[in-house]
């Protein structure tokens, strides 16, 4: 009986830890490179450094993703209501051509990069991508304040941005 109770406590503890809010990106994520629109490779840590001192909203998306396209009007509204925030789009598209067409077609304003190995790759795993669109909010000091938000979480994203002003 004591073993069962100990196992249940250990399981409950592990479950709480695994669902905890992350406040920083892993070393794997930071060292991974992403494809820039000019064809160069840029380390994720260098992309984040560029935005240090500004609140940053990251959207992980793909041009083929129906939920991503459906959420774009809400995302554009978020951008309009928060003009002092920086926006970073990270695509999980399979080809650069489709990714760039998606940026143009949907008139996405912000910085754009593409994961080199899509949804099942090193970068996606390093930031725990299990669904797109996925939103991450980073404060002015580089701390993650909202790690896991999806297209139904715009109220939570707006509230997070409001609290950071």
Automatic annotation (TrEMBL):
Segment forming the signal sequence: 1-20
Name this protein carries in UniProt: TlpA family protein disulfide reductase
Keyword annotations from UniProtKB, A to Z: Cytochrome c-type biogenesis, Disulfide bond, Redox-active center, Signal
Pfam families: Redoxin
Domain of life per record: Bacteria
A Gene Ontology cellular-component term: cell envelope
Domain called Thioredoxin: residue spans: 23-165
Biological process annotations from GO: cytochrome complex assembly
GO MF annotations in UniProt: oxidoreductase activity
Gene3D superfamilies from the UniProt entry: Glutaredoxin (3.40.30.10)
């Amino acid at each position: 009986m004591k073993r069962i109770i100990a196992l249940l406590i250990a399981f409950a503890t592990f479950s709480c830890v695994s669902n905890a809010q992350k406040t920083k990106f892993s070393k794997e994520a930071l060292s991974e490179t992403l494809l820039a629109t000019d064809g160069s490779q840029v380390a994720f840590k260098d992309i984040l450094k560029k935005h240090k001192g500004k609140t940053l909203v990251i959207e992980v998306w793909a041009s083929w993703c129906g939920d991503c396209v459906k959420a774009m009007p809400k995302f554009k509204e978020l951008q309009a209501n928060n003009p002092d925030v920086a926006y970073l789009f990270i695509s999980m598209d399979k080809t650069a051509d489709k990714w760039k067409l998606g940026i143009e077609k949907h008139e996405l304003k912000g910085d754009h990069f593409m994961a080199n190995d899509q949804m099942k790759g090193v970068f996606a795993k390093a930031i725990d991508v299990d669904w797109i669109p996925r939103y991450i909010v980073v404060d002015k000091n580089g701390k993650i304040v909202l790690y896991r938000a999806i297209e139904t979480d715009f109220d939570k994203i707006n509230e997070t941005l409001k609290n950071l002003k």
